[in-house]
């Protein structure tokens, strides 16, 4: 484990965060929440805050709000599900659920800093990088083949320039402005495949557990049944908490997000019927459906 690097990161935050004004109110609130939870160690708290300040301070959501605000609300939604009985795993996963997908804080580092259970949850909640779909190309025409090889060439150049890691992830804030539009166009053909592969994991709790156990077996990871159950529960809770905040903050693509929720997460949502999170999600979906129908009716009129 790279203890020296992590301690160096912590030292960086302590010495520079005031000058750089990186710690906003959301990070401070997360820090306060973590400090109040007996299941969270001082090491956990310091590691989380260091990660948020170093890796999320520049990131914004599509509505322009700080990304850390979304992580805070996901945590609050998870806390409302578990109440006083909450354990360490769902708390940390709520904050870290986008770390593999959106930062260079990868599986191995999560495992080393927060233990294997947390890393497994975050990995399950992370979309497969769109780069990996480029390697899985079906039969294509010669013209399409030339375009495909051009994409592969660009990938290798980006790897060489270290704009992406060997896990095919990238911090999009690091891309020069003149390449951002090209980057967006490069990703778009693989977006649907990426979405379908991701949401296929959430068909039902039973299927999720089977998929998780199978993946762990392939990786040579063996855990007690009770730990696997806790991991599955944490994954479901965080996914629904994340989805609830996404529904709350929709600013565009309302129908797409609604269809996505109803199509891919329907079974999972039905399995938690009459729970507080179910009531919240159902209420939000109903409100959005009504709003979308009203807007469509006005446009037609």
What's the domain count? Answer: 2
State the shape.
Answer: globular
**How many helices in DSSP terms?**
17
Number of strands: 0
Radius of gyration: 20 Å
Fill in the CATH topology of the largest domain.
Hypothetical protein af1432
Give the overall average pLDDT: 78
Question: What percentage of residues falls in helices of 4 or more residues?
Answer: over 70%
CATH architecture of the largest domain: Orthogonal Bundle
- The end-to-end distance, rounded to whole angstroms, is 63 Å
Largest sheet: none
Topology of this protein?
Blueprint: H1 3-20, H2 25-36, H3 42-55, H4 67-82, H5 88-96, H6 99-102, H7 107-114, H8 116-124, H9 131-134, H10 142-160, H11 177-187, H12 191-199, H13 205-219, H14 225-248, H15 254-264, H16 266-270, H17 276-300
Structure report:
By secondary structure, the protein is mainly alpha-helical. It has two domains: 3-129 and 193-300, Hypothetical protein af1432, CATH 1.10.3210; 131-192, no CATH class. The protein is built from 17 helices and no strands. The chain has helices spanning 3-20, 25-36, 42-55, 67-82, 88-96, 99-102, 107-114, 116-124, 131-134, 142-160, 177-187, 191-199, 205-219, 225-248, 254-264, 266-270, 276-300. Helix 2 (25-36) packs antiparallel against helix 3 and helix 4 (67-82) runs antiparallel to helix 5 (88-96). It is globular. It starts with a helix and ends with a helix. Residues 18-22, 165-169 and 297-301 have low confidence and may be disordered.
